[in-house]
Amino acid sequence: MLIMAVYFIARGVYPFGNSSVLTVDMGQQYIDFYAYFRSTVFGHPGQLFYSFSNALGGDMYGTFAYYLLSPYNLVLLLFPKTMLDVAVAVMTLLKYGSAGLAMAYYLKTTGWRSWWLPAWGTAYALSGWMLANQLNLMWFDGAICLPLIAVALANLVAGRRPFAYIGWLAAAIVVNYYIAFMLCLFLVGYFGYEVVRQWAGWRWFARQTARFAAASMAAAGLAAVIVIPTLVQLRLGKGTYTTTDFHWRFEYAPYRQLGKFMLGAFNFDQMPSGQANVFIGAIGVLGAVLFFTQRTIPVRERLFAAGWSLFLTLSVMVEPLDLLWHGLQFPSWYPYRFSFVICFWLLVLAGRALQGQPTGLTWWQMLLTLGLVLAVVATVWLNLAHFSYLTEWQVGASALFGIAAVILLTIRHDGRAATAAIFAMFMVIDSTANMVTTLNQLSYISHSDYHTYTESLRAGVAHIQAADSGTYRIGKTVTRTKNDAMQVGYMGTDQFNSMMAPPTVQLFEDLGQSENDGFVGYTNGTVITDALLDLKYWLTPRPTPAVATGFLPSSGARPDVSRYDELGRTGDLIVSRNPNALGLGFVASTDILKTKRAANLAMLNQELILTHLAGQPYRSLFDLQTMTGPKLHDATIKKQTQVVTKVTDGATVTYTFTAPTTDPYYLQLPVAFSDNVVTLTQNGTDLPIPDSFRSSILLNVTPTAPGEKQTLTLTLQKSTANLTDVALYRLNAAATTALLTPLRQNPWHITHRSDTSLRGTVTVEAKHKLLMTTIPAVPGWRVTVDGQPATISKALKYFIAIRLKPGQHTVTMTYRPPALGLGAAISLASAALVGAWWWCTPTGRHRKHS
């Protein structure tokens, strides 16, 4: 904790500067979940189960299980909502300290004492895995629990009471089931190691195996109230991405793993792909090697450790084994997430080896370790071009640490009082040097950017909520993260979440919105989608802010929003009201139940949805317009294919048009433009293009006034771009309004809303009508009409719809996570069985190998 605190202060982490610990997913995702956690505890307990801020609405129980069940999150409650980045820094320090303490405790139970304990603890807490995943703070809890579970498992194998093992394993599963899955796989091998180390015959082995299996199942049973409902959500979402097609092959040349034993073996490019982060310092690595040369360790123990070490080594290189550790899913970024168990395992072997050799190395052990250091350094040095995250000085410094470690191990004599202190100093310096080198390669969000943006958004939302206490969604054209709605607390549209349900992603794709497997973003809506999704209010930047924020990043151009009704202004934002918003529910034609969405045809889908909701025959609402162009600059084009190839970095393609009406105009960009193929300006002003989309999208290019010439310039960022599907469309505003107006006449008047329920009245005036909502139809919702259970229909294969007879009705909707009752019952039954086990096995009945 002290080492990391000094580093944070030196890096200027607020309040010691204007930096923070927010980077990549920590800044773009988790910080908003932490704000949501704080809000849940302070007054909104129902948010544990469901959130209308999760995209268009979604389950949160599985999200809590993955992100938010760490007891360290209680630190968030001690800080005001304006200083959550500081709370995250404190949590980070506590978790580093806890990991070191847990490892030190493990070593103490094996006989180590004195300065050796902080030495080993620091090597584990500042290991390569911990540093590389500092931004994935929820994973740290598994690494903290591992040494404690290992101690308890060793005691279980020794015949002692199993309850510490059951408790710590259950805790690990509860706080983060994902990392606990990897931990459980490792425990199978670690149990084998402890059995071999403590071997007392086959009958004893059978008895201990049965106790291990029973205790493990008891731990899983205690955690069932979390795990069972989460498994249901995984089956509906992330579990659908399970890989069944794999190949028995090395994922990279094995020698490339050697680079991860060097100082600072990490950079931003290693986040999406790379090798396992297993740095533990020179003493730890050489100690693990010496384990296999230590004659005081039984041969059977060394043989088993060799086999398990080989399996772990192959796991970070061979595709099917890598998949096994990750639950048969290739990780999206952060590869080899299980490598914390390798760091722990290497330190276990090193501790066991060095404990049995307190007076230094033999001459042949010295030559072996020195030769190993030189061989690894030479391999990396000669192939330095393949290690983009390493420099010559890093390899040279690593060589010096390795040689110094060999010298220390050779002259070691534990009879001298200073030996432990010298080793501790060396190991701490080694770990600290790696930490500084590693973390210095990352950049962080400034405290002011996080704070000023969040407070500007909070002020805008507060302005809306003060004027309207009803139920509605809020849209905006500024975005810091896709979880802004959770950070501030309102019903939005976006979400970035590993538990993202595929149907939500598919809906956004079919509506022409930004999306990927893990996120959705409403960045380029139209008048139709604004009305359908009940985006009743909009926040847009003021042309001249009353207060200079310096950080209001644009998410998309929506000049048509300026034609909505202005409600007011805050220091930075304009608040507008959408007169076309249909409400979260409204009466519509049953024709919508037959509507099928078309792939990669966003305009057609919007036209079909609106006309069928109105009970009208399909008609076109988007009219193709003429553009002049393309005019090329420093680029060539193949007329037959419309493929443009850039000649220089300044290559551009220009179109022009003039709009004779005030109707909204949209530029269609093909899916081929995804992933930053081009950038776009309109009359010299940048128009943001979403980073990722898998369907054609419509960018709003509505002129500020009709009759003005508009110039659209595409700048090529990649070598080629296909212009085939680039087109300009005008939305027929009059026809669209004519279809929306009757749909607004009979809304669902919501009189009560909690985090997990809605109740309101609706009037149906004719047959063949239904209550159409834009609430996702996911398992867990129950609906009653006038107090009687009602059948849920699914509109557009996504939204809840309820068929209604003519008349006035009270419609109530409630949500409960599927299988929550089953999980709770299993946990209660498991607790009873564990209690009976405890009652029947008093402490005095246990002895070693009993």
Automatic annotation (TrEMBL):
InterPro entries: Uncharacterised_YfhO. It comes from the Bacteria. The keyword Transmembrane helix applies. The chain crosses the membrane at residues 60-79, 86-107, 113-132, 139-159, 165-191, 212-232, 276-293, 305-328, 334-354, 366-387, 393-411, 418-436, 819-840. Keywords: Membrane, Transmembrane, Transmembrane helix. Pfam families: YfhO. This is Membrane protein.
